[in-house]
Design a protein that fits this description.
By secondary structure, the chain is α/β, with parallel strands linked by helices. Helices cover 35% and strands 21% of the residues.
């Protein structure tokens, strides 16, 4: 009898010790209840800082059919195949217009970055065609991408902010690929940006951090996301969708990382800002403030104001001549 009691005691002791040990481990194990999985910051790679550190690959530029022949230059459609999301494997195509002068073998290059156009009405060349023809007529090779989602380009990214950020990688990849343009002189590369294209231009030169002489016509120069929210009343839903998506974005990311105004110190390009005093899309005070801010920071920037609207129609010839003069002054022999 005594032996049975001893055995029962030992068994109960062992069960107690096992239960205690299990309970102790569970008490010290982190609880998964109410824990949200860590969100992967997949858009972080598009910030100014991260793009500056990225090994952005070049793409392939294919000149397609001739669309117009002028006395001093020919105009062609081009296709640009590249990796917009920087994953090293996703290749997409954007189309665009390239103008190549006839007289001579090698030419300085201007990358033309247009402002916003509704994709439903957009055709290759809208927003940059007139100035690109003027520059090509004066001996400059010009190239203007349509961007993803426009003309015959591939579909843009599903996320509205990634779609926007991929305009930056489009231009950065295109710059990397200019060496593949046979007619480029290999030395002189310039940027022209209008309106929202001005914001893309500024973002680009902040990332690149060296001198690419840049002309900005009525640039959207306010910080992200105000630079988008300012125009939301023009949307069919008055900006409801954008504000909803922005709220989600700000739960994960710091908007300052994607704002041009936080990275002006990285600009090392010579800049000419041209603004219309009658502009009702980009207030003149924005460009004046941009000029003053950059000037106070010691940047090489100049500013011209004309009595004109957003597209500088009333002073277009003067603005075009000023742009051409700026590029010529910054040519490297």
């Amino acid at each position: 009898m005594r032996r049975k009691l001893i055995i029962a005691f030992l068994i109960s002791t062992i069960i107690f010790l096992i239960a205690y040990q299990t309970n102790y481990k569970n008490k010290n194990k982190p609880s998964l209840i109410n824990q949200t999985p860590k969100t992967e910051k997949i858009l972080e790679k598009y910030s100014v800082e991260n793009l500056a550190k990225s090994d952005i690959k070049d793409g392939d530029i294919l000149i397609k059919e001739k669309i117009e022949e002028k006395e001093k230059f020919n105009s062609y459609i081009f296709e640009f195949r590249y990796n917009p999301n920087l994953d090293g494997k996703t290749i997409k195509k954007t189309t665009g217009m390239i103008n190549i002068p006839k007289e001579g073998n090698k030419f300085p290059l201007v990358i033309m970055i247009r402002g916003y156009v509704n994709p439903k009405i957009y055709k290759t060349g809208i927003g940059s065609k007139n100035l690109s023809y003027f520059l090509a007529n004066n001996g400059f090779l010009t190239i203007a991408p349509d961007f993803l989602g426009y003309a015959d380009s591939d579909k843009e990214a599903e996320n509205i902010f990634e779609s926007r950020f991929q305009t930056y990688t489009t231009i950065l990849s295109l710059i990397k690929s200019t060496k593949k343009i046979e007619k480029w002189d290999g030395k002189n590369i310039f940027i022209w940006g209008h309106s929202n294209g001005g914001q893309i231009s500024i973002y680009t030169i902040e990332v690149i951090n060296n001198n690419i002489p840049t002309v900005l016509w009525a640039p959207v120069s306010k910080p992200f996301p105000y630079s988008i929210l300012y125009y939301t009343d023009e949307a069919e839903d008055k900006g409801k969708f954008i504000r909803k998506e922005l709220a989600k974005f700000e739960e994960v990311y710091s908007v300052e990382d994607f704002s041009i105004t936080n990275h002006f110190d990285k600009i090392n390009s010579k800049i000419l800002i041209i603004q219309g005093a009658l502009d009702d899309a980009v207030p003149e005070k924005w460009s004046r403030q941009l000029y003053q801010t950059l000037k106070e920071m010691g940047k090489d920037v100049s500013y011209k104001v004309y009595p004109a609207d957003h597209n500088l129609r009333q002073s277009w010839q003067q603005a075009a001549e000023e742009t051409l003069s700026f590029y010529k002054q910054n040519l490297t022999e």
